[in-house]
Amino acid sequence: MRLQNKILIAFLFFILVPIFILGFVSYHVTSSTLKNKVGDETLYTLEAIDLNIQMVMSEVNTLSNYIISSREVQDFIKYNDEQSLLDFYNKGQAIAGLLYGQSKLDDLVLYSAIGQVYSFKKTQTPSYGQFLESEFYNMMVEEEGRPVWISTVESDKFVNIDQPIFSQGRVIKDIHTLRDIGYLILDVKLDRFDEVFKRLQHPNSQEMIVNDKGEIVYNRNHQLIGETVPLPEKIMFKQAGFFVDDWEQEKSLITFIPVTFNEFESSNFFLISVKPWSFITNETKFIRQVTIFLVIFVTVFAICFKQLFLNRIIYFITEFQSKMKQVENGQLTTRMKAFAIMELNHLAKGFNRMVEEISTLLIRVNNEQERKRKAEFKVLQNQINPHFLYNTLESINSMAVLHGSRDISKMTINLGKLLRISINTDDKVTVSDEVRHVISYMEIQKVRFDERFRFEIEIDKQLEHYFILKLVLQPLVENILIHAFHRNKTDGVIKIRGGISSNKGFFFIEDNGVGITNDVLRFFNEYKQGSKTSSQKIGCGVMNVQERIKLYYGERYGIMICSEENRGTTMKLTFPLSEGERDDL
Length: 585
Description:
- The protein has helices at 3-69, 71-79, 82-102, 128-133, 135-143, 152-155, 191-200, 233-236, 277-280, 284-328, 342-382, 386-402, 406-422, 431-448, 473-483, 518-529, 540-553, 581-584, and strands at residues 105-112, 117-119, 148-150, 165-173, 180-189, 206-211, 216-219, 241-247, 250-259, 269-276, 428-430, 453-459, 467-469, 492-501, 504-511, 558-564, 568-576.
- The protein is of the alpha+beta class and 585 residues long.
- Among the domains are: 70-192, PAS domain (Beta-Lactamase, 2-Layer Sandwich), CATH 3.30.450.20; 332-377; 424-584, Histidine kinase-like ATPase, C-terminal domain (Heat Shock Protein 90).
């Protein structure tokens, strides 16, 4: 896959995927929030509707209480007293005006225990025998005077009616003996329920009352009363709530609460509100549309960005890679052309400068290498063969032994040892070799100084196999011999002690010479800290050792000097413990 395609795909992926995720999460969070919000609001509405229905039913209960307890109705039922019936009728005219004005009652029916039937509207009413055979009669007898309500669906089984109603029935008891003397039926028009639902109903939703069989017992569209709808199982097992499910093959938000018409019966009716989910989520369509718009916009923008800008950068990268390969193959005459984009043009100029500098540097390195090779060859030409020196010293030693000059023989042997370690090309030697070297040096100097000093060596055996920079002890001893001992001093002592402390190697080099002044010690400390650049006030050998240790081992190691005038000097040299090249890697 080409680089520009990879960059375009990566650009689209890292931009579009977050947009898709954001849109998806926003849509679902908003839908869930709307569901809970609308569901809670609808629950409050259903509870308000239920409260108003209960108020309507309470008003009818109050009216029925008045009717069954009135003296006129009692006399009519017990004695078939026409005058009582006339008085009740006259009173009923006033009551009827009130009831019809409020659209509450459609009819009032009285049955006496001896079979008489009275209808307030004088309409066709079921006979007393039909009434006794109905389920409505059995329900009223079971309730023993308490109100019994039946819906239109159940009323159809009792009497054929042209318009939907709710009916309340009650047993009329003698107010003196509490004996059943008749029965009262009040038919309530649904207009009163329509007012309640119309006032509280939400737009684009339908509220209804459904029994536990799925039969619609009330709907503002009266033509739907009696229809059967499949009830979701969630309604049957909950007290109240809301959920999203299919209602008549449309996804809807279904909210429900149980209601009861008969006070002492368990609830077998449900007040249900159904709202199309598409209407509820209408607000979320904006989020979905914005997400789609953003996806299209970003895609078009990415393509335009690629064509107008990204292709130039990709071309530069491709060209840069090609030129780099040419430089890697040794084509140092390669150059990049100028680019219109300022930043890319700067990079191209920087590449060209780099190639030019590399070319110049290679020429310079080749010239230096050539000069170095010639110099080394000249040194080799002038170098004396070390074997010739060793053979010459061995001849001098043999002649000294033959003539009995043991001092000359000893000096010759020590000088051979000095030459051997001095011409060694390695940077480091073992502590034991470094100590043998300084011993050879001091043996030669004892002859030179006519035995005016002696030396003591005390080295920890564990330290001897570790490695140290070569030629670090001999310059310090040489500095002592030059600056610490006067010509008339005959009891000079040099002590060298070596050991291990805190995972570091150390040497103490002590003498009993003239000591070092405070000015020189202060100058040495300033030199160590970098504030002085000249070492003329201090022995060059000491400073050389200090610089070599600092450069090779780091700032934590080096020489520390303690001295007191006319009492002597002690130098401490510290170095890291190393076992050769293995520790240097």
